[in-house]
Specification:
Blueprint: H1 38-51, H2 53-76, H3 92-116, H4 118-125, H5 129-162, H6 172-196, H7 199-215, H8 217-220, H9 227-236, H10 238-245, H11 255-278
Length: about 280
């Protein structure tokens, strides 16, 4: 009498595409799986921005411009000059020059990833593109505003010590608004960099946004038909906006100029988010 043979193990059907199907039970990874959130994207973007040399160089030049020009101006001004000016006025020239550094850094935060192809790795690790761009905006703004406000506040305090009692004009508010203005201008640059995806093109476009309104009124004011337009452009360009914030211009405190910049930046940010989801990398 023949002995019954044990049943043969059932062969699994071959997986499509030539891949071998897994045998037995499915594999369970010992690595815990956590749901990603904005905090992870913030940590990633902070690691990126503090690891590249462009951040160190641009912020280093920014600090040199603010400190050197502020000390020079504060040392050359007399006590009588601060009767109608806040102590933070000494940082006006440095911040006007330093805004170029923040514009450049804002563009490079996003455009450099497109230039190197790193953006593909970023979006593979975080498919939620809007989360990545949000993290870039938040990290850059926090860094730009923190560095600019700390430097302007420090120079205002040093100027107050050098010319003690010369001014009764509150100066902390102008330091805050001036730092906010150049930081938002940097955020606008980041949005333009995300839209154009090209470092040189985005930086050139932002130089036009800053410099063209300062030059164009000189030609528009010649003719009576374009004089009003020229006066408005002259009133709202970046240089005159900072001058109003720091009290160099007695007409207004720069609030309307800051509001206009916020509106324009919000529109550019919205455009960057809309194009991010529609275009491929």
């Amino acid at each position: 009498m023949s002995t019954p043979q044990p049943p043969m193990p059932q062969q699994s059907a071959p997986a499509p595409g030539g891949w071998q199907a897994p045998q037995g039970s499915s594999y369970t990874s010992p690595i815990p799986i956590t749901r990603t959130h904005l905090g992870h994207a913030l940590a990633s973007e902070w690691t990126k921005i503090k690891s590249v040399r462009s951040t160190v160089w641009t912020l280093g030049v920014f600090l040199v411009l603010v400190f050197s020009s502020s000390l020079l101006i504060a040392s050359q001004m007399r006590d009588e000059d601060f009767v109608d000016l806040p102590y933070s006025f000494s940082a006006f020239i440095g911040l006007m020059l330093g805004q170029i550094c923040l514009i450049t850094l804002g563009v490079l935060v996003v455009s450099s990833e497109y230039g190197t192809g790193m953006i593909r790795t970023t979006f593979t690790a975080s498919p939620q593109r809007h989360r990545v761009l949000t993290a870039k905006f938040l990290i850059f703004f926090a860094l730009a505003f923190g560095v600019s406000f700390a430097s302007v506040f420090l120079m205002g305090a040093l100027t107050a010590g050098m010319h003690s009692g010369a001014s009764d004009v509150p100066w902390v508010g102008s330091a805050f608004k001036g730092s906010l203005y150049v930081s938002v201008l940097g955020v606008l640059s980041l949005a333009v960099g995300s839209i154009l995806r090209h470092s040189a093109g985005a930086i050139t476009a932002m130089m036009g946004v800053v410099l063209l309104p300062a030059i164009l009124p000189a030609f528009l004011l010649i003719s009576e038909s374009t004089r009003k337009v020229g006066e408005k452009i002259l009133d709202y360009n970046a240089i005159n906006s900072l001058a109003k914030i720091f009290g160099a211009d007695s007409e207004g405190g720069g609030t309307s100029q800051l509001v206009l910049l916020l509106v324009v930046t919000a529109a550019a940010v919205a455009g960057a988010f809309a194009l991010l989801e529609k275009r491929d990398v």
